[in-house]
Structures are given as structure tokens and as C-alpha cells.
Write a structure and sequence with these properties.
Helix content: over 70%
Order of helices and strands: HHH
Oligomer: single chain
Number of domains: 1
Low-confidence stretches: none
């Protein structure tokens, strides 16, 4: 009698654990979804790190050189020098 009761308890625990493995908050599908999201965020983080390096380099050049500042103003704001003509082409 005690053995049957123990078997029923263990089978019930087994069903609960199996349910949690496939349907609960820590289930395999949730794990796989989180793993995919983690990989996407890891790639996005890598891109942002590269962009930060590029921007840091640009900041360093802006602090150090007048030529870079002049070129940046010309490129970003469309300034032209005296006796210079600026053409805009539409695509």
C-alpha cells in the first residue's frame, strides 16, 4: 500500500515537472526564444560598440584639428567657401 502511494506521488511529481519543462516559465521554448533574443542583442551591441569607436574617433579629430572641423561643417551643414558653387543632385 505504501509503495503504491509512493509511486502515485512520484508519478504526480513527474507529470508536474514534465509540464514545467515544456509549458512553464523556465521551459525549453522560452529558453530557446531567450537564446535567440540574446544573440540578436549581442549583434546589436557589437554594432553599437563599433559606432561608439567611430564617434569617439570623430570627437578626437574635432578636438585636435581645424581642418577636420572645417570639413565636418562643410559636409554636415552645407557651407561653401567664397567663390565656390555647391550643387545638389536628387536621386
Amino acid at each position: 500500500m505504501l509503495v503504491r502511494f509512493l509511486v502515485v506521488i512520484l508519478l504526480g511529481a513527474n507529470f508536474v515537472l514534465a509540464y514545467q519543462l515544456y509549458q512553464g516559465p523556465g521551459s525549453v521554448p522560452v529558453y530557446l526564444e531567450n537564446k535567440e533574443s540574446f544573440q540578436e542583442l549581442k549583434m546589436k551591441n557589437k554594432d553599437l560598440i563599433e559606432e561608439n569607436k567611430r564617434l569617439s574617433s570623430e570627437i578626437k579629430h574635432l578636438r585636435d584639428g581645424d581642418d577636420f572641423i572645417k570639413e565636418a561643417v562643410r559636409r554636415e551643414m552645407g557651407y561653401v567657401r567664397e567663390n565656390e558653387i555647391l550643387y545638389f543632385f536628387s536621386e
